[in-house]
Specification:
By secondary structure, the protein is mainly beta. The protein is 2% helix and 56% strand. The protein has a seven-stranded mixed β-sheet. It has a seven-stranded antiparallel β-sheet with strand order 2-3-4-11-6-9-12, with no helix packed on it. The chain has a four-stranded antiparallel β-sheet with strand order 5-10-7-8, with no helix packed on it. The longest helix has 4 residues, at 138-141.
Length: 236
């Protein structure tokens, strides 16, 4: 097994007033040559957007863009005609493909929205752009690792992406133990602690810490407190 640890306090940070963003990997004004990507995982941003504010219409192409809100409601609009609101429990993917314009804003003027913005390199370029969104209940995630993102054409239950990637989320009770078996032995897993404290393959992690693991067929996960984790299995 090989691993790389990214502690929460080592992430890039940009506070624009209306947007407070932490970057696990190089993004915008934050650049670290050692932290460009983890395999197909290119961006992992931890964003807080002030009430009524947001990202104006802007373009993307040839990227799988995933949004996972944890607090509040995020309103999405794009030039495919999609107008949706995503909130806690939802997972959204936009396959940018040949090109798409979209905007994201905090739906509410009186409270902030917090969400993870994640970008994956696709395994096929210039596909037709697509949008998908699914909801997952708290019960779905309780002491389970539920699949929320999976490869296009599979029936694994997640929103689908143009990549050999699986994302799982679990909300684990203190002292609960579980294991994650990789779908593809050639993939790696980037584990991100949303809340709480966990030990993964012997490495102790706290809130917003990230751990990239390669050359392992399994992750052994122990919840040292009530915790929520996101596992991102991607080609490396």
């Amino acid at each position: 097994m090989k691993s790389i640890l990214h502690k929460a306090n080592t992430r890039g940070h940009a506070n624009h007033g209306w947007l407070d963003s932490y970057h696990t990997f190089s993004f915008a004004g934050y650049h670290d040559a050692e932290r460009i990507h983890f395999g197909a995982l290119r961006v992992l941003n931890d964003d807080t957007v002030a009430g009524g504010m947001g990202f104006g219409a802007h373009p993307h192409d040839n990227m799988e863009i995933i949004s996972i809100p944890t607090v509040g409601e995020l309103e999405h609009n794009d030039n495919m005609g999609t107008k949706q609101v995503i909130s806690q429990g939802d997972v959204q993917v936009m396959s940018a493909g040949t090109g798409v314009q979209h905007s994201e804003k905090n739906k509410n003027s009186d409270k902030e929205v917090r969400f993870f913005q994640i970008w994956l390199f696709p395994n096929k370029k210039n596909v037709e752009p697509r949008y998908e969104q699914k909801s997952f209940s708290e019960a779905d995630k309780h002491n389970k690792l539920i699949t929320v993102v999976s490869p296009l054409g599979t029936n694994d239950g997640g929103v689908q992406v143009h990549q050999d990637a699986w994302f799982s989320i679990g909300k684990l009770d203190k002292d609960f133990s579980t294991a994650y078996q990789l779908r593809n032995k050639n993939n790696g897993v980037y584990a991100f602690v949303i809340e709480g404290d966990v030990t993964i393959n012997g490495e102790k992690l706290s809130r917003r810490d990230g751990l990239g693991i390669t050359d392992a067929a399994e992750l052994k996960i122990d919840a040292d407190s009530n915790a929520e984790i996101l596992l991102m299995e991607v080609p490396v």
